[in-house]
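We now fix the convention by which a protein and its fold are recorded. The integers have meaning only within a learned vocabulary of local backbone shapes. The record below shows the convention in full.
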Amino acid sequence: MSRPPTGRAERRLCILFHEPAILGAGVSVLRAVEYLRPYGWTASGWFPGAGPLVAESATMLDRRGYAEKPIAYSLRGWRRDPGMARRLRRAPAYLNAFKRWLEEESPDVVHVNSLLMLPEATIARRLGLPIVIQVHEIPPPGRKRDLTLRWASAVADVLVGVSRPVTEMLGAHRGRKPVTTVHNGVPILGSPSRAQGRFVVGTVGHVSRTKGTDVFLQAAALALQAIPDLRFEHVGPARPWGDDEFEDRVEALANHPAVRDAVKMLGHRPARDAYARWSIFVLSSRQEAFPLTTLEAMAAGVPVIATKVGGIPEQIVHLEHGVLVAPDDAAAIAGWIRRLHDDPDLRARLAAGGRARVRNAFRLEAQAEGLNRAYEQALTGRK
């Protein structure tokens, strides 16, 4: 990895965050801001509403702007409070507020941190600003995704995927726009200290179909049949998307007599506090672009069991840096929980391998270097 140049003239970067909650996509780019400063970048941020990420960014961003965003991206979203009619009426005021803020900022480059910010990216394009769109998601295939990706290609100067599957998805609709992969990085932690006591299996994520929350709870029930002393913890908010049928099912699984005394649904809280007491980390997702939680667990010295989907195989080689299983296979997850419980040497080897993998391949310095290349490419393309 090359060193950033010194003595660069200051350049202004504006990051468009797709939500004000403290979630992976927003956290990943915020962490990189400090490492972009040696390249001459100062950063400001726009948020679609007030929230904890706005407060979290206070020491990282030089300037911040936000307004409540009424625009939704599904029929279910448009129907949420305050309802479709009010959302439609409020949309022009929101977009005008963003336009005024962006004109005042007058950035050299606009970093659009999600496909969900394409309306704002279109305004930035009309203002003649160079645009880098970074995509942290893999939407389900279909006409809606195709149209969204074509829109992104029309607006962006450079497209950035966080993993090879994302970059390949973007490449299918990029036209002549350059596409590159920039992996997210995570902080390198000091030597981990594992809490003594019960064997705890943890996971992090929204309660959702995509995250496979139901699969995690099914695996817990199966593992407890063999090892009743196991304990399970879930960190992440419940009912974030209004998928009541699925979320009712998850509540029923968590409250089943076979598991309710062994499972804690802890809600939204900092995951870093949990890694120190977890013996194993499980990510049972049905799809992932490039999750931070697996990298954070590896950096913390927690052995990882994760599904072989999306960008996860770029993070983990099976039985070198963690364990990979097929999606929707609760029995396989339970089997590996039992094996790792019974084999402390294997746990130690995977924990060491995971930490080394993060240290060698997923540092924040490398993420910043890749983003800077994308910004430079966007600037060069406008000259």
The domain at 200-361 is CATH 3.40.50.2000 (Rossmann fold). Residues 84-105 form the longest helix (22 residues). The chain has two domains: 11-185+363-382, 200-361. The mean pLDDT is 93.
